[in-house]
Amino acid sequence: MKYVDEFRDRGHAETLAGAIKRTVTRPWTIMEVCGGQTHSIVKFGLDELLPEMVTLVHGPGCPVCVTPTALIDHAVVLASIPRVILCTFGDMLRVPGSRGDLFGAKAAGGDVRIVYSPLDALALARANPDREIVCFAVGFETTAPAYAMAAIQARRLGLANFSLLTAQVLVPPAIEAILSAPGCRVQGFLAAGHVCTVMGYEEYEDLARRYHVPLVVTGFEPIDVLEGVAMLVGQLEAGRAVVENQYTRSVRREGNVAAQAALREVFEPAAQTWRGIGEILRSGLKLTAAYAEFDAALRFRDILAKSGSAGGEDPDCRSGLVLQGLLKPTDCEAFGKRCTPERPLGAPMVSSEGACAAYYRYRGHARGEA
After folding, report:
1. Which one, 141, 177, 250, 321, has least CB within 10 Å?
2. 273: which DSSP letter?
3. Do residues 170 and 195 touch, judged by C-beta distance below 8 A?
4. What is the pTM of this model?
């Protein structure tokens, strides 16, 4: 990628870390709300460059990680129906439900296809008119417009065999849930640049005002993250609480207006259960009444109702605390022992954006080998 080296320059990173050290006068706790940023922080050791008074904690910034077990169970059930082709992103295969995962469903004969875009699932629906194509719609606001366009195209093409199993979540309500939780120790947020590329950051301005907490829209490379931390520390030390945009090469305040219009046409906010956290009002997306014909949960409701869901997490899994920034992955007793990428107890160990996966991959897993 052209110019990527300038965002990974070690000298520049050390200069930024030095500037932060000279600025900070008291302890601050900052949360990044993006799994991509978490992986960058852990991979490049950015937290180890920062002064001790600046603590980075990891938030619920991985949509795969917060997909509730009940929806995983539903996906497994649908994948087991002979006439169904279930389409999903690859990092959903090993996410455990209460009764297994999609990898197991595929091994048992279910037709589970890995896709790279919802439009791939749409192409399968056109090519297989005698099959039901269910697209597992997991993601933040970043991927939601693509699911919306798939539904719009399905209607235009008259594809009655295409549906969405929706598990999409919205970032601002999650930030508000963290801020309003008893004992919240987060004093500043690094907001995800790709989400804001789509949605803009006007909604974050309201959060900054109401909770008097600064937010900085930040990119994903090491220099992006360190610049975002420097901007947050500057605000915190000055007693300011506004939204700033570090990621100006991609993000505008108003976001992508065309993508937002597609979202409004197809989806509306709804209460959503976040795995390990619980229900958050208006934090998910559901299909509007006009597009309810493409709702897999409604299309297969009788089958799903009969199958039920055991719900719940493995009692040894503490990923809920990790997702709320209350625990580092290596503080979990199961990390690297009972919980590994091959045999995960929770989604953060297998998702490509999971915090536990990042620590396992980049910080070693000596704890599990001890």
Report:
1. 250
2. E
3. no
4. 0.94
